[in-house]
């Protein structure tokens, strides 16, 4: 992949709302070249989605329960973890799914309206899958940083002491 395309990806990953003229200036290209690069990156499924990071705790009556579930599974012959992962990510509650190293095989991030709804997902849907051996559920209590964006009060200063060698 050429250098300009990589630069473009790095820029829009931080801010997907930058205008074409600004993007073109930032990577020293024309608007047409940028538009063409973006279209190719979308067609090649390199750019999968454009999204916003939202602090839902500041929106009345919109908070949800988010849980991270560690899942131990028995991999299936010939397909490894892929088939069980496909079964899991098809559930609408699943927001993210990762293959992990360590004590557990998969990490599942789910979102529900209530604690009961979230626990029902684990007990009625996830744990009933044949390959699932065990689960450990962790509930998110507060978001400090997500996708590189720090949550908190505006203008809040970093009060850490600078340490230099």
Provide a descriptive summary of the structure in words.
This protein is an alpha+beta fold. It folds into two domains: 3-43, Arc Repressor Mutant, subunit A; 58-142, 2-Layer Sandwich (Alpha-Beta Plaits), CATH 3.30.70.920. It has five helices and six strands, in the order H-H-H-E-H-E-E-H-E-E-E. It has helices spanning 3-14, 20-26, 31-43, 82-89, 115-126; strands at residues 65-73, 94-99, 106-112, 132-139, 145-146, 149-150. The strands form two sheets. A four-stranded antiparallel beta sheet has the order 2-3-1-4. Strands 5-6 form a two-stranded antiparallel ribbon. Strand 2 (94-99) and strand 3 (106-112) form a beta hairpin. Helix 2 (20-26) packs across helix 3 (31-43). The longest helix has 13 residues, at 31-43. It is globular, with a radius of gyration of 21 Å. 12% of the residues are buried.
Question: Outline of this structure?
Answer:
The protein is an alpha+beta fold and 165 residues long. Helix content is 32%, strand content 21%.
Topology:
Layout: H1 3-14, H2 20-26, H3 31-43, E1 65-73, H4 82-89, E2 94-99, E3 106-112, H5 115-126, E4 132-139, E5 145-146, E6 149-150
Antiparallel strand pairs: 1-3, 1-4, 2-3, 5-6
Helix content class: 25-40%
Low-confidence stretches: none
Q: Which sheet architecture does the biggest sheet show?
A: 4 strands, antiparallel
Helix/strand structural class: alpha+beta
| Secondary structure tally: strands | 6
Q: Tell me the fraction of residues in β-strands, as a range.
A: 15-25%
Domains counted in the coordinates: how many?
Answer: 2
CATH class of the largest domain: Alpha Beta
CATH superfamily of the largest domain: Lrp/AsnC effector binding domain/regulation of amino acid metabolism (RAM) domain
The spatial strand order of the largest sheet comes to 2-3-1-4
- Rounded mean pLDDT is 89
Could you tell me the CATH topology label of the largest domain: Alpha-Beta Plaits
Tally of DSSP helical segments = 5
Query: What would you report as the Rg, rounded to the nearest angstrom?
Result: 21 Å
- Note the gap between the termini: 38 Å
Please provide the ordered H/E string of secondary-structure elements.
HHHEHEEHEEE
Shape: globular
Second-tier CATH architecture of the largest domain = 2-Layer Sandwich
């Amino acid at each position: 992949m050429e250098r300009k395309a990589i630069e473009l990806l790095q820029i829009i990953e931080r801010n997907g709302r930058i205008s074409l003229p600004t993007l073109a200036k930032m990577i020293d290209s024309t608007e047409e070249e940028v538009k063409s690069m973006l279209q190719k990156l979308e067609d090649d499924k390199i750019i999968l989605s454009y999204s916003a990071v939202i602090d839902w705790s500041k929106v009345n009556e919109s908070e949800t329960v988010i849980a991270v579930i560690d899942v131990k599974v028995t991999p299936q012959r010939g397909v490894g973890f892929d088939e069980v992962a496909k079964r899991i990510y098809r559930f609408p509650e699943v927001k993210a799914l990762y293959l992990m190293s360590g004590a557990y095989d998969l990490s599942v991030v789910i979102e529900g309206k209530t604690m009961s709804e979230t626990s029902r997902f684990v007990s009625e849907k996830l744990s009933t899958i044949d390959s699932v051996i065990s689960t450990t559920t962790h509930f998110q209590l507060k978001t400090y940083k997500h996708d590189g964006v720090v949550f908190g009060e505006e203008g809040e200063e970093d009060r850490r002491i600078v340490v230099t060698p």
